[in-house]
């Protein structure tokens, strides 16, 4: 090799053998710490796997120490470029570097003359284009992804040219690298050693179904297999696969869920019910579904239903509306669920009519918040259903309606709660208690309290005595807990 000089003075620092170290320790000279021993071990591993040369200009180069049968040789023939690339990748895996395909040379007619395959660190580092200013005045510079290039103009490569019926012949091979090669635990980070197999892909998909992201999925895989090295892929591979799946699905996620619902309806002998609607542009604006279990639960526990459309999905900002009830063990049961693009009268009318169609009847009592569009839809389309409002939403507005001083008054809060939340008062007793509070704290001129008193039969438990289990569902906290549950899914 003409351009390099190999000598004991120009090589990387040699590793000190344990016998030499012990002799020096006895003599009391150059005692080393454990960390120094670890560095020496790494240097020794690198020296065994590659040889470091220093050129005349002082530049260092590394040549892999590889068995001759794995090393590329000129005048070697390959039937296809893929076969040649696979061979070079295997060589890089053994030696500790990644490989990538590079440019090709063609003649004026487009016939390939040569194909280049390089070390992954070949080529010049990419320039940062994020600071470039647009051509037009006032135009903002284009944002580019912030990345750190590992390219260092490494010249290691193979060059192939067409060889007619024999495929391609290796006409040039540059073995030296201008950077250290990966060794030991570093090898797991080489792209050629990272493989996201089909079981891993299925594992990422399964984790996504229960709201576990790719980062946590990678940690779970590490715990299952023992170490990150045993996983065979890094967290970026998990993230990239998750990103590619989302990009591939794109705007077809609605088609996928509708196809899934259609198949479920066919396989369940029509016991699964769903309906949807779209706008004039074909965008989904409403989706409703229920299954056989939800319908059976409604037959038994469906006299009182609570639904609270307050939780919105992240991507499309659609309103999630769970229809919730309580079983005989005081546990939440789901009757049905829906997604709405907007909280307006038209959408709520469509939703509650689908619920009635799927269940065969409307509930005896329904608990909602103070949304006026829900009230309008229920009064017109569920005329026989008693509508009650959520006490929690009403009482939560207290501080903004009566001022900050009264809610801080312990005596006022205790008296108001004893009147509002009591299940044992008659309507007359509640009215008496309420009037005493209004007079004592001089709230007769408060318009909000007057309005709440006028609709007291829609939210005060004293007026729920004719409804069995109304005390359990006098607020939408059941729906809110369901929302919290689905938010974690």
TrEMBL record:
UniProt domain FAR1: residue ranges: 86-182
Biased amino acid composition, Basic and acidic residues: 130-141
Residues annotated as domain MULE transposase: 305-397
Region of interest (Disordered), residue spans: 1-40, 121-147
InterPro entries for this protein: FAR1_DNA_bnd_dom, MULE_transposase_dom
Coiled coil: none
Record's compositionally biased regions (Polar residues): 1-11
Protein name per the record: Protein FAR1-RELATED SEQUENCE
Domain of life: Eukaryota
């Amino acid at each position: 090799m003409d351009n390099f000089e190999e000598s004991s003075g120009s090589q990387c620092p040699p590793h000190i053998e344990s016998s030499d170290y012990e002799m020096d320790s006895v003599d009391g000279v150059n005692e080393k710490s454990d960390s120094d021993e670890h560095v020496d071990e790494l240097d020794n591993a690198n020296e065994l796997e590659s040889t470091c040369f220093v050129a005349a200009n002082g530049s260092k180069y590394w040549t892999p120490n590889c068995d001759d049968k794995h090393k590329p040789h000129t005048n070697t023939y390959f039937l296809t470029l893929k076969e040649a690339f696979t061979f070079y990748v295997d060589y890089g895996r053994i030696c500790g570097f990644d490989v990538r395909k590079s440019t090709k040379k063609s003649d004026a007619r487009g016939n390939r003359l040569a194909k280049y395959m390089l070390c992954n660190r070949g080529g010049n580092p990419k320039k940062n284009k994020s600071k470039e200013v647009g051509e037009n005045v006032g135009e903002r510079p284009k944002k580019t992804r912030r990345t750190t290039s590992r390219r260092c103009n490494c010249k290691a490569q193979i060059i192939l040219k067409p060889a007619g019926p024999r495929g391609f012949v290796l006409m040039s091979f540059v073995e030296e690298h201008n950077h250290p090669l990966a060794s030991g635990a570093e090898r797991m980070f080489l792209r050629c050693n990272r493989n996201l197999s089909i079981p891993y892909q299925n594992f990422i998909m399964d984790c996504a179904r229960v709201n576990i992201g790719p980062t946590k999925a990678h940690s779970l895989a590490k715990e299952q297999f023992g170490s990150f090295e045993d996983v065979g892929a890094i967290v970026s591979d998990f993230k990239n696969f998750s990103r590619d799946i989302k990009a591939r699905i794109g705007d077809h996620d609605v088609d996928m869920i509708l196809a899934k619902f259609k198949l479920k309806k066919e396989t369940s002998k029509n016991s699964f019910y769903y309906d949807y609607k779209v706008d004039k542009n074909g965008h989904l604006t409403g989706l409703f579904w229920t299954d056989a279990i939800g319908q059976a639960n409604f037959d038994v526990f469906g006299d009182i239903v609570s639904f609270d459309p307050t939780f919105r999905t992240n991507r499309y900002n659609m309103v999630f509306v769970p229809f919730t009830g309580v079983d005989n063990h005081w546990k939440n049961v789901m009757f049905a669920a829906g997604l709405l693009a907007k909280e307006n009268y038209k959408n709520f009318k469509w939703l509650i009519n689908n619920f009635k169609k799927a269940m065969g009847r409307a509930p005896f009592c329904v608990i909602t918040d103070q949304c006026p569009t829900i009230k309008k839809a229920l009064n017109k389309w569920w005329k026989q259903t008693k509508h009650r409002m959520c006490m929690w939403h009403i009482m939560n507005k207290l501080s903004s309606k009566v001022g900050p001083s009264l809610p801080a008054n312990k005596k006022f809060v205790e008296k108001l709660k004893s009147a509002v939340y009591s299940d044992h008062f008659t309507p007359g007793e509640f009215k008496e208690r309420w009037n005493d509070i209004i007079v004592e704290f001089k709230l007769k001129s408060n318009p909000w309290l007057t309005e709440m008193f006028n609709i007291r039969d829609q939210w005060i438990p004293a007026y729920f005595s004719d409804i069995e289990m109304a005390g359990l569902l006098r607020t939408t906290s059941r729906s809110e807990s369901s929302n919290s549950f689905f938010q974690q899914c």
